[in-house]
Structure formats: structure tokens, C-alpha cells
Amino acid sequence: MIWPGQAPAFRRLKAGAVFWGLAWAMGSALAVCVLMFAWVALSAGPVYDVRVFLAAGSIIGAVLGGAACGRAAGTMGLLHGFLAGLCYGLLLAGLFLAGHMESIAFGDLFWRMFALGVAGSIGGLAGVNWRDRKKARSMMGK
Questions:
Q1: Burial class (CB in 10 A: 0-12, 13-18, 19+), 117
Q2: Which tens digit of pLDDT belongs to each residue from 59-113?
Q3: DSSP secondary structure of 66-82
Q4: Helices (H) and strands (E) in the chain — how many of each?
Q5: Alpha carbon distance 61, 32 (integer Å)
Q6: Residue 121 in 3-state DSSP?
Q7: Which of 5, 79, 81, 114 could cross-link 121 (Cys pair, CB 3.0–4.6 Å)?
């Protein structure tokens, strides 16, 4: 006998939450790119090395996307966040390959997507455990 809460994991997976997390990840990456563009346009220095900021922006995007995904799913935040981060990594890899037309090493691509998946799962864990302040106040009787 299987209880209703014991359904297989793939049945409890919410694709809409994963797409919501992917949208948040891409939106935050776009915001980081706009901030970097403003920094380059407004500063007086002639040389800009933004590799660190691009890497940090992509990881921040994966964490925020995972948090939004876990919050939207409400359950299994690690899995939902990992899938959102992995889809985000695949999308970034596709955009990179479309722009460069060079081959990238499989190991490098694997570790980048794995890192974004882990960052997304950390965000998913935080998002699924995030409590809304209004709900917390109403539960306490205030």
C-alpha cells in the first residue's frame, strides 16, 4: 500500500516551479550584466577584467533561481533547485556555444553545470524553508 505522500519523486516534481526558477535565474543574470555594463560605461579605467563578476553573477543567478524554484514548489527544494540550476547551466552553455562556435571541453562543461546545480540546490533548500512574514504572524496570533 502506498500512502498519498509516498508518491515517486518524479510525480511530485513541479515543472512550472523549475521554469519559474529558470526565469528568476536569467532575470538576475540580466540584472548583473546591466550593472556591469553601467560600471564599464561610467568608470574611467581603460581595462576591465569582468570574468570574476560574470562567474559570481552566474552563481548568484543559480542561487536566486533555486530559491524561487524551491519557494514555488513548496516541497523537495534540493531537487527542484538542482534542476533549475542545471537547466540554467545548460542554457548558459548553449548561449556560449552559439556565440563562440568553438568546442568546449566536456569536463569543463560538466563541472560548471554541476557547480550551478549545487548552487541552485542550496537556493532551493533556502527557498523551500523560507517562511512568509504574514503567515508567521498569523500563525502566532498577532
A1: buried
A2: 999 999 999 999 998 888 899 999 999 999 999 888 887 777 666 777 788 888 8
A3: HHHHHHHH-S-HHHHHH
A4: 6, 0
A5: 9
A6: helix
A7: 81
Q: What b/e string do you get for 34-67 counting C-beta neighbours within 10 Å, with b at 16 or more?
A: eeeeeeeeeeeeeeeeeeeeeeebbbbbbbbbbb
Residue 13 class from Cβ within 10 Å (0-12 exposed, 13-18 middle, 19+ buried)? middle
Whole-structure pTM value: 0.80
Task: Name the grid cell of 67.
Answer: 530559491
**What is the rounded distance in angstroms from the CA atom of residue 79 to the CA atom of residue 131?**
19
Chain centroid offset of residue 98 CA = 21
Residue whose C-alpha is closest to residue 126's, from 84, 79, 63, 43: 63
